[in-house]
TrEMBL record:
Residues 2-238, 252-485 form the ABC transporter domain. The keyword Repeat applies. The keyword Transport applies. This is Ribose import ATP-binding protein RbsA. Keywords: ATP-binding, Nucleotide-binding, Repeat, Transport. The gene is rbsA. It comes from Dactylosporangium sucinum. InterPro entries: AAA+_ATPase, ABC_carbohydrate_import_ATPase, ABC_transporter-like_ATP-bd, ABC_transporter-like_CS, P-loop_NTPase. One of its GO terms (molecular function) is ATP hydrolysis activity. PANTHER family: CARBOHYDRATE TRANSPORT ATP-BINDING PROTEIN MG119-RELATED (PTHR43790), GALACTOFURANOSE TRANSPORTER ATP-BINDING PROTEIN YTFR (PTHR43790:SF9). It comes from the Bacteria. Transmembrane segments: none annotated.
């Protein structure tokens, strides 16, 4: 169905795709894997019509495909769900799903029919738990991702490109996504699946293309490869230890309390939450979608107000003054200013009043870019939107590290990040904890939340339902507390 022949792309004088050739048939799942910066995002933007090629051709059913714009790609039956959300947050789920194609009656929008059609789209995608009348911006990020997928399915595409669709999903929501991918394959749709979660790639894909430095270095099938081999192909070396060794023996005394939350309540989100963070420890916070984990973090940071309880700051500025930093789960929406350069994004936390010591800011930012190995080299003046997802995440971390925080809240810090960059982030967070920082790590990845932390808090329906030591605890034990009635 789809064939790429010697596809090339350059930005300025730098070629980022060096003659990519691939093919895939209908009713298959082609997985694209590679480290951040390997060229995956550029490739799918070409297929979606968002950027043009500088060489090569794309064929659909053996004929040259006109991909000169997203409109032309849509006309050919190609739809893309990007990693970064593109919903209109002030509009309802129905309005987002049906923008430009509302059912009408007597020249007016037929809202009864519109909500019914939206519910049909959600049900068909397996996301019927979402209320079509709910404002999209009030949904958790994971549910917003589901709406994006349902929107792409509204026109029954022949080729569906999914860019990190599972990055914020867990539990039954993740199961629903996997069922949908298998159902689309049964219907004859070609699914191009981009993911850093290699276990699910091996489970879902019928074919795998490994990209490195803008080239396809291997095409294979799940039965002929393994996670370790894919990592070797992506990184050019054998995988190292993923998680750092434990910083202390079980039962060792942690440092002083850096954050104490008691009885924190925000109606409809969480109730009576209490916990402590101590210097030198990494505490995991796990919960399924709707458990209240991200809402709790935002409230502690001062982005929303509790109705009762203690431990939450009055506003983010107050939290920052007290040495608390927060990396949000939506880096594009609330972590970065996409229109600004990398230098200006990292330096945001150094702005005080109207005057900026620009020389010092440049030195500090350059030091952070080098410390976190933000790529490509010399990217300080580049728009941050041009960086890969992993390097954007590093830029967000760099921004907060310039503050010199005592408490660091990380909400899905490895979302859409390749394994090599994940290892870098884990090591950096481990190093910060060894220096005395208190870290709260929120994640929907159970392996991560147990491997990178000292203890785990489990949330279910807005309450803390368990506190477990990370070492010796199984994923089943955590899930049991996350889903129990």
């Amino acid at each position: 169905m789809l064939e790429l022949r010697d596809v090339r792309k350059r930005y300025g004088g730098v070629e980022v795709l060096h003659g990519v050739s691939l093919s895939a048939s209908g009713g298959s799942v082609l997985a694209l894997v590679g480290a951040n910066g390997a060229g995956k995002s550029t490739l799918i933007r070409i297929l979606s019509g968002a950027v043009g090629m500088d060489g090569g051709e794309v064929l659909l059913d053996g004929a040259p495909a006109d991909l000169s714009s997203p409109h032309h790609a849509h006309a050919l039956g190609i739809r893309t769900v990007y990693q970064e959300l593109s919903l209109v947050p002030q509009l309802s789920v129905t309005e987002n799903l049906l923008l430009g194609r509302f059912p009408r009656r007597y020249r007016m929008i037929d809202w009864t029919a519109a909500h019914r059609r939206a519910q049909e789209l959600l049900d068909r995608a397996g996301f019927g738990m979402i209320d079509p009348r709910e404002p999209a911006g009030r949904l958790p990020v994971a549910r917003q991702q589901m709406v994006e997928i349902a929107k792409a399915l509204a026109d029954e595409p022949r080729v569906l490109i999914l860019d990190e669709p599972s990055a914020v999903l867990a539990g039954s929501d993740l199961d629903a996504l996997f069922r949908l991918v298998r159902e689309l394959r049964r219907r004859g749709v070609l699914v191009v699946y981009v993911s850093h979660r290699l276990a699910e790639v091996l489970d879902l894909a019928t074919g795998i293309a490994v990209l490195k430095d803008g080239q396809v270095v291997e095409t294979t099938e799940p039965a002929r490869t393994s996670e370790a081999e894919l990592i070797r192909l992506m990184a050019g070396r054998r995988p190292e230890r993923i998680y750092p060794p434990r910083r202390s023996s079980p039962g060792a005394s942690p440092g002083e309390v850096r954050l104490r939350v008691e009885g924190l309540t925000r109606p409809g989100e969480f109730t009576g939450v209490s916990f402590e963070l101590r210097a030198g420890e990494i505490v995991g916070l796990f919960g399924l979608v709707g458990s209240g984990r991200s809402e709790l973090a935002a409230c502690v940071f001062g982005a929303s107000r509790p109705s009762s309880g203690t431990g939450a700051y009055g506003n983010p500025a107050d939290a920052i003054r007290h040495g608390v930093a927060m990396v949000t789960e939506d880096r594009a929406g609330s972590g970065l200013v996409l229109g600004l350069a990398v230098r200006d994004n990292i330096g945001l936390t150094t702005w005080h009043g109207l005057w900026i010591d620009q020389a010092r800011q440049r030195r500090d930012v350059a030091s952070m870019i080098e410390r976190l190995d933000i790529r490509p080299p010399g990217c300080a003046a580049m728009p941050v939107a041009r960086l890969s997802g992993g390097n954007q995440q590093k830029a967000v971390l760099a921004k907060w590290l310039l503050v010199g925080p005592k408490v660091l809240i990380l909400d899905e810090p490895t979302r859409g990040v390749d394994m090599a960059t994940r290892v870098e982030i884990y090591r950096m967070v481990d190093g910060l904890a060894r220096e005395g920082l208190a870290v709260l790590l929120i994640s929907s990845d159970l392996t991560e939340v147990l491997g990178a932390t000292d203890r785990v808090l489990v949330m279910n329906q807005g309450r803390i339902t368990g506190e477990l030591p990370s070492e010796g605890t199984t994923e089943d034990q955590v899930l049991e507390r996350a889903i129990e009635a």
